[in-house]
Amino acid sequence: MALKPASPSAAQQGLIAISAIVIAVLLVLIGFMVRIVTEPVVDSQIASVSPAEPVATTDSREIDADLLASLGLLTEMRDVLQKEFFNPDAVTDRALQAGALAGLIGATAAEFDVEQLASLAQVILDTSSDLTSDALVTEAINGLIDATDDRNTTYITPEEMRYSDDNSDGNYEGIGATVDSDGQYVIIIAPFDGSPAAKAGIQPGDKILQINGEEAVGLTTQEAVDIIRGPSGTPVILRVEHTDGTIEDIEIIRGEIPLLTVTTTPPGADFIDRTGEAVQDIAFIRIARINPNTPDEVRTAVEEAESNGAKAIIFDVRSNPGGLLNETVEITDMFLTNGVIYSAAYRDGNEVIERANPSQITELPIVIIQDPYSASGAELFAAALKENNRAIVIGDTSYGKGSVNNAFPLSNGGAIYTTIARWFTPDGNLIEEKGIAPDVQVKLTIEDFEAGTERYKLVWAAVDIARELAEQTSE
Asked: Is-contact 192 175, C-beta < 8 A?
């Protein structure tokens, strides 16, 4: 199933044309004339620069060697994107040039020729006292990433990579939440089950306005994480705006966060039915995210459910951001005997179809609870079981991340994380920015919050449906 690459939009073509005009005007104004070069900068040009020696330009200006070396990351990122990105038409030299220029424009209100990026950046530094070379490199990187027009492609800084390595043992000290940015504020995607953040009242979708009394507007996710993380037992105060518009100061006592991915109780609630009775006949398995340990954790939880006499299983993937593809497939395959799990279309037109093996570990009926923060692997799991008639999905439409992504290391210790394919559901549906629609829609309302039943509404609905399925199976 091949995807038809998108052609450059009129807006993109217009941006390129305007870029050329602004560049010409800028060069005249600053008296900086260079020849136009259409060939990309090659690695040997950068490698030949001695860190201690400046580089001469065609107008005798000198380029800072460190600046040139830093901007060399753009060449590495371009090479990865042109080799791996699923839509090659979106990452041509011309498109990426426009993206990097747009990044510099954001800092200077002018546009630049990417082939002379280092030279022009040096001119900006010479003429702008409030800018640094690091800031310019960041803007150029952001612009190059933006040129892909893919919300799932991003640059991972060396610091972020180190945090990833630090967490490889499955534990870290902090508040226990996943975050993202809306471009202005850092947003809580989800607090981990049982984490200090969850216990303190942090909710999915919370916008972080202040951290310890300091304004948080404009912070990157990594900058916010650096401030929020800290030794276990120490406090951090977040001023957050909840999704209902209310603003609250929340003190969180940091703790050691174990990265367990599977629990058997609803987050923040007892496992009870509408009558208030404890549910004994239905198993509840929450998958918070998907890492290398998750398949074993799921298998153990299912075995316990079977041994306890459960007549059906509820899987809760609310606020699950996904995780590793192979582990997601392994989990999904546990509940299918045949059929397609997913298919993926790559940039070269190659299509991969992943099919189930006849090795399901249980025949119990399944209900899946999802919400708008269920993404990626959580969506693949829900869609595969839904479209193979193996589960009923309830809740709200999911996030809509239908991409296969890889991180490719860069020479500075960072990485570029990019989309290498789009994946499709068993029925051939592309969910990117669309999500998975539930079989039964159950939305939270203001009345639910006023009544204090918001933590139970979806669980109650899932229990009702699971019991109906169990009764049908026993007939």
From this structure: no
